[in-house]
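Query structure, 744 tokens:
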């Protein structure tokens, strides 16, 4: 029998399970509370199946499997994947996310499967992936167990490295749905592993942060390398599959839909075609995209760091496509309707057809374009009837974007304009304790400087305002132009108007366009003013306190897990700890050592040291110990105490070995309390990196174990693995040296 088969038999210890009769239902329960091969339970909430396989066999098509807090377990004696060949939802019984430990080699669907609020632990390093195989795979707030390898998501079929399918019958269309901010996986591959795929694939990613997902590939991949003969080594991890559209292509259509999900990189090369990508987002995020067929920005702002120069682009009315990082770039067809942002010195060449009406901006603007260069071609195009609107930067109010033979170009500079050179606010906090703001106005002093010829006043500058009050943020809001030709910022919901003139910004409840509003409420208003200067936008902020109000301190970044019932913060934290120690020693030592540590430690420590050390050590050991000794005296005192002693000593997971002849005694030490029956101990013998033998060792209730080193293996490298009953390691590999070592 091959060595690998022997190892599998030793490690799995699979017994023939008794047949458990249970009535199938739309909801069955499973919770791993027995042994690896204990097929017990009836599937009810009161008597859940011990093994996940029993729950999967019992649940009806379209039903639900609920996993208890202790998790679920899938046993195995081979390297074949777990096949889920029915439509089923697998979810947590409670709010906690239990672990589903799978010793099969990956997961392949034969039906539409949803995982919700669970942790997937793929113990087997072979096929560390989930393959949709032409069905719908939904992962809602699901992550892989961080102590096992990274799990990848596959749209197609799983083949072995010889091209033999390891999957059930392929479905009609693959759909991968990832959602929830807790979802965390590796790469996503639209196609198959070790083979091609001829079905359509849709990938929907909703509300998943970019750091929780690797790259997205629109093709299949060659499976990564994994040394299955060294599967006991916790550092032996499979490499990620290598994408390859030529050999592992997808001949169906691939569509990738992102909703509030910032995927760092997407490759749309399917092999025979290209993927289409659509984006919906409430926030700005950036992405690198390659080999995309059609990019659609439905809503929100997408900032591109890379894009292929023959992509077709569509910007819908609420979408903003920021291509300012690309400098001079090109696209094929351009379907307008939203906003296009280029760099100040950028150029977009439309090689195909231009259609629709799009707002053009350069980067750096707030509700308008940033600063643009005069007499510059920004959009080069010759086909189609599309057009661009342009709302110039405030200091370039006379600039236009005009259609020319070559495309769209800004106008020439005709005269020297008067522009704002600098803008500042004299102060950072202003207190209106007398409520002047409701009696007339309250002035915020400012400093301004203009350049150019002619008269200009700050009231003629379209400032932009943002106000935060009571946890809500209003704006950024553009100023409105009054009938007098001046600008003011109105916030009707706050009954507040900002009216700049000369050296002040007046805050009042009267607006030239709205009229008198209700009184401005007492409280703290955080105001940011954005001013368009000749060199770009500048932001200045201040705090306006209306009424006799004391502003709260800046809140902590993260709230405490359990807030105090009645918090009473100190006015000023103690900068330096008190010099006089407490009469009784604290259970936890102070941060700093005593002022005078022992200059020269005694050669032999006292049998029972004093509870409180003397200021200066005596030359000779104390003849009569003090009444109250320390619990455990230091065997050999240190020459110099550490600056910050450990308050509570930690216990590192380890194994202590002693030897009696050829027999090795082992003492397992864990920093967490577990049951001895959940500890699995394996002894591995290697010679020149060649595996010679694996032995399973029983662990006693007192966490001790013993084994005998075979005579022919005394000079080999001996390692001990301590795992739990789900084959996850408790600690790093423990090395046992040979009899030549000084350890024994």
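Result returned for the query:
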């Amino acid at each position: 029998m091959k060595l690998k088969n022997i190892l599998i038999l030793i490690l799995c210890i699979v017994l023939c399970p008794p047949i458990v009769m249970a009535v199938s239902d739309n909801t069955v329960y499973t919770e791993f509370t027995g042994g690896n091969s204990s097929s017990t339970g009836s599937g009810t909430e009161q008597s859940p199946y011990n093994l996940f396989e029993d729950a999967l066999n019992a649940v009806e098509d379209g039903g639900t499997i609920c996993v208890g807090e202790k998790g679920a377990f899938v046993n195995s004696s081979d390297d074949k994947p777990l096949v889920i060949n029915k439509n089923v939802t697998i979810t947590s019984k409670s709010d906690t996310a239990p672990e589903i430990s799978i010793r099969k080699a990956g997961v392949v669907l034969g039906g539409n499967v949803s995982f919700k609020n669970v942790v997937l632990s793929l113990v087997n390093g072979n096929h560390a992936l989930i393959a949709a195989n032409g069905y719908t795979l939904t992962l809602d707030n699901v992550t892989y167990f961080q102590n096992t390898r990274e799990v990848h998501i596959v749209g197609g079929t799983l083949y072995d490295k010889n091209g033999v399918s390891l999957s059930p019958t392929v479905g009609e269309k693959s759909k991968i749905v990832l959602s929830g901010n807790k979802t965390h996986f590796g790469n996503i591959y639209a196609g198959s592993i070790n083979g091609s795929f001829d079905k359509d694939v849709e990938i929907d990613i909703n509300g998943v942060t970019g750091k929780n997902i690797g790259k997205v590939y629109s093709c299949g991949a060659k499976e990564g390398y994994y040394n299955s003969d060294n599967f006991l080594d916790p550092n032996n991890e499979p490499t990620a599959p290598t994408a390859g559209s030529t050999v592992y292509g997808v001949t169906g259509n691939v569509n990738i839909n992102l909703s509030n999900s910032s995927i760092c990189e997407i490759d749309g090369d399917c092999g025979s075609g290209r993927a289409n990508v659509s984006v919906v987002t409430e926030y700005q995020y950036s992405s690198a995209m390659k080999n995309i067929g059609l990019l659609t920005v439905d809503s929100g702002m997408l900032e591109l760091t890379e894009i292929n120069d023959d992509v077709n682009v569509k910007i819908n009315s609420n979408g903003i496509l920021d291509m300012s990082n690309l400098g001079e770039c090109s696209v094929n067809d351009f379907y307008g309707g939203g906003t296009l942002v280029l760099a100040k010195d950028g150029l977009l060449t439309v090689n195909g057809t231009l259609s629709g009406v799009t707002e053009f901006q350069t980067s750096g603007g707030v509700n308008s374009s940033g600063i643009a260069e005069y007499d510059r071609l920004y959009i080069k195009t010759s086909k189609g009837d599309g057009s661009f609107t342009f709302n110039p930067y405030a200091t370039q109010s006379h600039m236009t974007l005009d259609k020319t033979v070559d495309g769209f170009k800004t106008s020439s500079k005709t005269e020297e304009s008067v522009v704002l050179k600098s803008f500042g606010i004299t102060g950072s906090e202003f207190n209106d304790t007398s409520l002047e703001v409701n009696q007339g106005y309250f002035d915020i002093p400012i400093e301004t400087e203009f350049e150019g010829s002619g008269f200009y006043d700050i009231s003629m500058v379209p400032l932009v305002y943002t106000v935060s009050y009571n946890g809500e943020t209003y704006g950024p809001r553009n100023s409105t132009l009054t009938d007098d030709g001046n600008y003011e910022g109105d916030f009707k919901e706050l009954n507040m108007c900002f009216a700049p003139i000369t050296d002040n910004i007046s805050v009042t409840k009267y607006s030239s366009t709205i009229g008198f509003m209700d009184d401005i409420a007492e409280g703290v208003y955080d105001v940011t003013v954005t001013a368009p200067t000749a060199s770009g936008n500048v932001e200045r902020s201040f705090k306006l306190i209306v009424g006799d109000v004391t502003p709260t301190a800046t809140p902590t970044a993260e709230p405490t897990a359990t807030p105090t019932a009645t918090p009473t913060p100190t006015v000023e934290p103690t900068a330096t700890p008190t010099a006089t120690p407490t009469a009784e020693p604290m259970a936890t030592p102070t941060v700093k050592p005593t002022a005078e540590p022992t200059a020269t430690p005694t050669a032999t420590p006292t049998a029972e040291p004093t509870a409180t050390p003397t200021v200066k050590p005596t030359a000779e050991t104390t003849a009569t110990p003090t009444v109250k000794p320390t619990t455990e005296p230091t065997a050999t005192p240190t020459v110099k105490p550490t600056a910050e002693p450990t308050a509570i000593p930690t216990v590192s997971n380890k194994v202590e070995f002693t030897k009696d002849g050829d027999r090795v005694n082992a003492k397992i030490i864990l920093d967490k309390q577990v049951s001895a029956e959940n500890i699995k101990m394996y002894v591995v013998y290697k010679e020149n990196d060649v595996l010679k033998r694996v032995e399973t060792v029983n662990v006693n209730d007192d966490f001790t174990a013993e084994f005998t080193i075979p005579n022919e293996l005394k000079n080999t490298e001996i390692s001990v693995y301590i795992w739990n009953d789900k084959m996850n390691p408790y600690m790093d590999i423990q090395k046992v040296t040979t009899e030549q070592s000084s350890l024994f």
